[in-house]
Amino acid sequence: MRSGELDVLVIGGGVVGTGAALDAATRGLRVGLLEARDFASGTSSRSSKLVHGGLRYLEMLDFALVREALKERGLILTRLAPHLARPVPFLYPLKNPVVERAYVGAGVLLYDAMAVAGAVQGGHPRGVPLHRHLTKKQVKRAVPALKKDAASGAIQYYDAQIDDARHTMGLARTAAAYGAHVASRCRVVDVLREGERVVGAVAEDLETGDRFEVRAQQVINATGVWTDDTQAMVGERGQFKVRASKGIHLVVPKDRIASTTGMIMRTEKSVLFVIPWGRHWIIGTTDTDWDLDKAHPAASSRDIDYVLDHVNAVLERPLTREDVEGVYAGLRPLLSGESDSTSKLSREHVVGHPAPGLVVVAGGKYTTYRVMAEDAVDEAVRALPFRVPDSCTEDVPMVGAAGYEAAWNARVRTAEASGLHVARIEHLLGRFGTDVDDVVALVARRPDLGQPLPGAEDYLQAEVVYACTHEGARHVEDVLARRTRISIETFDRGVAAARPTAELMASVLGWGEDQVEREVQHYLKRVEAERESQQQPDDETADAVRLGAPEVVPIS
């Protein structure tokens, strides 16, 4: 990035920033991307992990947003990232067997019709089954965990889920494969200007302390909840403001809720999801205003009680704090409006050009990242002095996606050839897609890497090494919190896996014993601070406690 002027520089390594880098690179542009922390370390690793149209937005009459999101859902499921996304059934319990069934049924029918129309428009399969109506007896068979009076019947519909952090990291890798220069742990500390025009950025390599300039004809600000902060570098607050809304999620073991399907329920403020997640359930979310630390939003005791109280209202056997394996909190970047309630703010996105050479993209939702990225790059290339092709990302599968179905069909053969159990190969295919061959090759060279990771036996040791060699992981936190989900999928939050992970990373990254110890201690302090913050009564005290654990790489 130092060596010559780029066409486009993207600031922000979340899903929109990495999507914009991929969009620009696949148009043949010279592209750079700078991320201050790790890829997806903010909002893009802390979502509900759903790829969905947003059923509740139909009730708000936001048909355009739902239609757009359903088309993108189909593309992700069938073309762009089929190895990371999969259909998930959701049961919507009904209290009134006649009026509510007619009202909700009409909405879900429209939802499915929009999905079919989006599939036709996008030229791809629908990706998920159509909805169906269930009687009270069918509901009890599908969800034995429900209280007897919790539903007089139900409607079951389908959406999809995705590992958001792996997907975002995969977009960064795909952009790099098409020629983009992509760097994590590089913070933008200032912008370069010539008169009123923005012509690049000053970046600091947080690993070395080195500062350098990156010159670019156009800069795209895709920093999500940090949008206003980044705007301030050019002395502009922009044409719009971004307001952060906190959503927290609980992770519990699969056996704590007897159900064959996910669920969605209304709350007084929003909706509550119970989402299948491998051998776990993800339950959430909240929707509250947040104006404290953006890097590490904290879940308070009040947040956790809110989620437990609402899910327990329909469960025969209530969940307790002891059932909770993991807790995570994320911030939605909502476009600020006149509403005092964040749950009513827009999930639409906007693109602006507040200063010559600077494009800002803000708002939106995870599912529509590709459209947001395309719109941002469209705005940027209008100012370039040469003709740029239209976006083609609708037809660009991410790394690991091409040939996934054939690789899945060959999983038994792959297991036999590798010596790994077929269940392990299925697990790897669901995380790496066709790149599973690279992981298996590591095991062939080092058979010890085919062993489970101590403290997190669902994962192989090879996955830690691969995270360093192929996926840009620089620290233990990167691996346990984002390349894997060990930090929320184990009762000890990954504590037992921290040292084995650090030692495996050391063999690749050249760490000495001192660095291994620093990495382990940092991770243990992170977990301790998160656990303690979750015992605090409110946001302010939870935030103060969470900030007691320093960044693994300090940001001045």
Q: Can I get a quick summary?
A:
The chain is of the alpha+beta class. It is built from 19 helices and 20 strands. The two termini are 23 Å apart.
Task: Explain the overall architecture.
The structure is a single chain. Helix 1 links the parallel strand 1 and strand 2 (31-34). The longest helix has 24 residues, at 99-122. The protein is of the alpha+beta class and 556 residues long. The chain starts with 5 loop residues before the first strand and ends in a 10-residue tail after the last helix. The strands form 3 sheets. Strands 3, 4, 5, 6, 11, 12, 13, 14, 15 and 16 form a 10-stranded mixed sheet that branches. Strands 1, 2, 7, 8, 9, 10, 17 and 18 form an 8-stranded mixed sheet that branches. It is globular. Mean pLDDT is 94; it is low at 338-346. Helix 3 (63-80) packs across helix 4 (99-122), helix 14 (461-469) crosses helix 17 and helix 18 (513-533) runs antiparallel to helix 19. Helix content is 38%, strand content 23%. It has helices at residues 15-25, 55-59, 63-80, 99-122, 136-142, 164-177, 227-231, 301-312, 369-381, 404-409, 411-418, 422-432, 436-445, 461-469, 476-483, 486-489, 495-509, 513-533, 539-546; strands spanning 6-11, 31-34, 50-51, 85-94, 132-135, 153-162, 181-183, 186-194, 197-205, 211-221, 242-253, 262-266, 271-277, 280-284, 288-289, 326-335, 349-355, 358-363, 452-453, 456-460. It has 19 helices and 20 strands.
